[in-house]
Amino acid sequence: MSALSSPVLFVCRSNQEYIKKPPNAFMLYLKEQRAKVKAELNITNSAALNKVLGDRWTSLSPDNKEKYFQEAHQERKLFQQRHPGWSSAQNYGKRKRKRTGTAATTITATTTTAAAAATTITATTTAAAAAAAAAAAPPATRGEGETGSQRFVFP
Length: 155
Known about the structure:
This protein is 59% helix and 9% strand. It is mainly α.
């Protein structure tokens, strides 16, 4: 790639600005190679194109990858100079929806009750499955058990 990218500010749906993180080495490789591979293989499906690019990245030699890692390191350093103290939590923090009125309370109560019922059903099913498995299993001496092909002993 030729020059380091400039700072990018985006505006999300709630009209709050957020700062785009610097690209990693693979993202820089994708940006450089996407158009070439798309023209070369005539692929329009982005999932298939990403699969091909991912396979090519994996098969790329460490020497060829090094230029992308160095460029990503430069991008990261420049980003830290432009945005000291920036944390991804500023962009990706929890966004709570604000609900107002009594309908929101009713919906929340119904959802909570349904979740509790599902938890109760799951716990009952799990307990029944554990009891059936214990009845079917041969008795083991205290503190011994087996998982897969590994055997372990508890103190």
